[in-house]
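ugh ok so i messed up the first submission bc i forgot one of the chains. this is the corrected input, ALL of the components this time, i swear. 988 residues overall. if the numbers dont match what u have on ur side tell me asap before i send this to the collaborators (the ones from the other lab, u know who)
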Amino acid sequence: MNPSHGRPARGFWGDLMKKRLTPYLFLAGPLALYFIWVIYPIFRTIVASFTRWDGMTRPRFVGWENFVRLFNDRYFILSLLNNFKWMIGFVILSIPLGLLFAMLMDQKYPGHRIYKSLVYLPMALSFVVIGQIWSWVLEPAGGIVNTFFRWIGLESLAKPWLSDPKIVTYSLIWAALWRQIPYAMVLFLAGLQSVDKEHVEAAIVDGANAFQRFWYVILPELRPAMVIAVTVNIIDSLRAFDIVFVMTRGGPYYSSSVMANYMYIQAFHNYRMGYGAAIAVIQFLITFGFILVYVLNVLKREERI
Amino acid sequence: MRKLLVLVLSVMVLLVFAKERIVINSYMSDPAPRKALAELVEMFQQKYPEYEVVVNTFAHEDFKVLLRTWLASPKGTADVVTWFAGERMRYFAEMGLIVPVEEVFEGSKWEDYFPEAFKSTCSYKDKIYFIPQSWYWWGVYYRKSVFEKLGIKEPKTWDEFLQVCETLKRNGIVPITIGTKFPWTAAGWFDILNLRINGLDYHIALTAGEVPYTDPKLMKVFEYWRQLIDRGYLLPNHTAYEWQEAATFLFRGQAGMYYMGQFIKDVAPAEVKDDLDFFRFPIIDPNVALYEETPIDGFMIPANAPNKKGAIVFLRFIASKEAQEKFAKDLGRLAANVEVAPPDEHARKGLDMILASAGVAQFYDRDTNPEMAEVGMNAFIEFMQNPNRIGDILKRLEAERKRIYGK
Amino acid sequence: MRKTLKAVFFYVFCTLIVVLWMVPLVVAFFTAFKTMDEIFMLRNFWAPPKTWTFENFKIAWTEGRMARYFVNTAIVTAASVAGTLFLSSLSAFALAWYEFKLRSLILMIFVSGMLIPFQMLLIPVYRFSVVTGLYDTLIGVILFHIAFQLGFCTFFLRNFMVTIPTSLFDAARIDGASAFRIYSKIIMPLVKPAVAALSILEFTWIWNDYLWSLILLQSDAKKTVTIGLTTLQGQWISSWNIIAAGALLAATVPVIVFLIFQRYFIQGLTLGSVKG
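and heres the new structure output, hopefully the right one now
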């Protein structure tokens, strides 16, 4: 317990400086960069949402006009509903399936690394590529999905995946899941490494069956991975853009539109940057609302540890 | 000390002999036009060695977004940009984001270079802002061998057209193919039907936002369009296909006709290219004069261009017979320059068709306010999928029009 | 008996999943080797090419100027990943270990940056980079990526840092170690695996970034691989075969990085490396 290296605390002020300022010193660099490139632009966007601006000439202040218009805009409402479909799809499918795949592939049989690597591959592709590939896969006449259904005689299942307004969003969600499920799987694979095997074995000794072991031992220890998985899936689903933009541009006639896509069209196609900014603000608030609830919950639980 | 002197001298030499730079941002990302432009630049640099020209190419969709950021930027980065004539260009002229290019015609006039008919679409408030380079026509494309086999002749009237559709259908061929994943193909149909039924003046007024979408005259357009939809003459599931994918049905002989721009030939496989021909869209009302769609592509100069003088020199070159001829020949397009003859038979036929027309339009999404174009084109798709909803659709469009144009 | 049953179960299901997952990639693979005419005339996306042609790769490489773009992208990605990991480790450290008034607020600020729909940052960020002269420079793109990824990386690293027992921290403090020493000598080595994992994720994302390279770069010479890929898309024509070939080329680097380091990736995300 000898203060051999480092300066010993020097009285009241020294102590105060070290304790109070240290975190801020660490945060100074990152925060500065963050403020310049991220926070300040966010602020400018919020300001823009109260204006009518074409991105080129001077903006004109219009108060709440953009927001009022948003709530009466049927295409925005449609986009919002689609985003919720995305969120439900992502959370309900990618998390359980990701976990399932992770648990399945975590067993150390020879070749398990090859399986994992192959399922990861979609994550290494850019969205543009993924969108293009799935457009070919879902093509009504020559795409592999429909060709397969016709081949096994289930003609009725060979639907127009990307042109039927009723099912287009689900097709897009599935294309996105092709990448999202491996993502969740990776997160859970990591989480599984930290599940204490001794606890699981203790549970076996205690007579717990597979389900009980899973529910009472494994799942709680997966919490950090679960936190990230849920957060990421909520954010990604509400922010979905690239897949929609590449595969359908929100069509046919807005039926697959999502908020980010609609915002892009309004801002960059229709020269309504103010309106686009308002959409961004709403999207931001919604996402923020969900995440806030979730993360606060997590923080609360951390403090209890 | 000596080293410093050498350094200073070399910098001076570099400055003195430094070439003036001209930066061109282009959306010609297709391989053939891109190569043609690069060769034009070569020719230019040979003629004017004091200039160094840099061409930056962008994907078409991205370019549309980026152009506005470049034009509005406090510091300009491009001297010349590619763009379309018509409303899209005038939009920027109105805001003072592009500059007039009258100097290109120093010592001569517009008519020495380009057709009179193009002047208005390249100008704003009587000043010329746009130098056209090439243009193309839209027509109904078909495969000669298919028509020959079924004994079909090019239809001239609407009724003949319907008969051709029926014949094709009876022989198991989809009469009309179209790819509406990106809605502009549907806009082409809207335009031509409107031009045939209501004429050019009405169409211009509509695209300028002066005609209500609930106008009964406009409804006639959809009634004719509906005839094709109700009789099942259109490609099934067309909203799943891009225009190109829909074209494959034509190439493979599975579809009969495609109302499309001349560039369809650029995509046709070698074995089909020479089999492709087109005819003028059929006449619906013999009392209405013949109008066609002829989108015009060309160049303009941003207001914040660092090197305006150089840009003018370049544009003068682009407008010259030599440059226009090369570009047109390489691509089989029609040059805007009046002294250039059409490069081949196909182009000749197109040119004749246009010369025999009373007027031209630029295309719905180039003539209309972009916001209106966006909802308008999507509305056409919705109509094509749900013809019964047309009343509702038009009411909604009208509400949008009122909001956008404030009239 | 039960053991072999489990093994069979494993292999059957894993193979099934992998086959299902790889189908779309196979389509892309085949398309990359076909000629345009074949695609147009036969319309069989999932059948192997009648004639395997390497033309597409050659064209994608030269027309898409891939050599140059690979270099650019490598520079941007490496610098951005290094920069953001370093800075976010600093901020994660502060947010994990110190109790101070603004802690929750600052954490929320970082998190909120993760939520922003990035399209809306386009105009302000573009303007800023033009005004400061950072436009059309690789440095500008790097700085932006570093800043933008700070949110997620801070959140991620912090999440793992909090699982390290406080006893280690306190012991070092009592020994009189300065904060920076604790950070560099004790905490960082312990989260190294998490950092490794994060760096692979970040590498993949930044390599595949499209939007920001598009907005912040203009010169053809400075572009990145994803942009180069899209310039293969014409105004009228999409040469699917060339695009497929280009896409496969573009995907090679992140895929290779992924495959080589996936071992560290999994180990890396582990929390169990610290057992008190």
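quick check: The beta strands of chain A are 51-52, 60-61. that seems consistent at least. The two ends of chain A are 28 Å apart (CA to CA).
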